[in-house]
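Sanity check

After download, print the first record. It should look like this:
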Amino acid sequence: MANATNNRPLSPHLQIYKPIPTMVASIVHRITGGALYFGTLLVAWWLIALASGPAYYDWVNWAMGTIIGRLILIGYTWALVHHMLGGLRHFMWDLGHGFEKHFTTKLAKASWVASICLTALIWVIVLIVR
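Expected structure tokens:
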């Protein structure tokens, strides 16, 4: 009897679960929340550069204007938008709406599409205004 209990798993694990849109949306919501901490450091760096004088400000603008800098800024923008949309989804649930399985799945998929489209729109506007 003791051998039978030693060989069984303690609880289901990730190998058993099939990723579904709502599960992935929840995980990515947490990841983007963490990423926003690092993105906020970029905003603080830019503000410090602004207060430090034109030479340092120009250097930070140059660094953020490189390919890697732009990719980081685009990633930060996407994380901000995706996390905001996830927050709105959670707010809707806090109000007691949208708990039906088919609706939550559609909403999780829509948050991906909307976050990508809104990020692209934001960057198109940034590039036009610039």
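If your output differs, re-run the checksum step. Summary of this record's structure: DSSP finds five helices and no strands in the chain.
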